[in-house]
Amino acid sequence: MDGACLEVKGSYVKKGSGQIAIASDDILEDDDNAETVVDIVDSFQLVEITLSKKDFMAWVKPFLKATAAKLEETGKTERVGEFKKGATELVKLIAGRFDEFQIFCGQKYDMEASLAFAYSKEESDEFPTFLFFRDCMKDEKF
Fold first, then answer.
1. How many whole angstroms separate alpha carbon 82 and alpha carbon 78?
2. How is the chain split into domains, by residue range?
3. Residues 20-37 pLDDT 10s
4. pTM
5. Cβ–Cβ contacts within 10 Å for residue 83, how many?
6. Cα–Cα dist 85/16, whole Å
7. In the chain, N or C terminus with fewer CB closer than 10 Å?
8. Which of 3.30.870.10, 3.40.50.2000, 2.170.150.10, 3.90.1150.10 would CATH assign to domain 5-136?
9. How high does pLDDT run on average in the chain?
């Protein structure tokens, strides 16, 4: 999608697994009671939201326009055309399979920010695939 999309495979993990409790001189692992979560959702504290297809389309149009403007402002003018083309492909994919997607936002419910979209890319997938608008992500170097 012309680099407009980050595709990330999630996995299910037990939250808090590996924690060791010491009781009566015995070491116990309490994994059986640990909640199973999707690693990406848990790590980034994403919150699932419900949007209709109409709501999604109403959100995405101004969002893409604002993102293109932000690319211009930050001197990434050469990226705007590729972003628009790739983002259009991504929107078509999401809209075409809308009922298969889960939609997530950040913990602050900032609807002007980017959303995350999760679905089963292949019918045989055990884990969800997340799609993100790449040009809306902040790069952090470690």
1. 8
2. 5-136
3. 444 555 544 555 677 889
4. 0.81
5. 23
6. 41
7. C
8. 2.170.150.10
9. 87
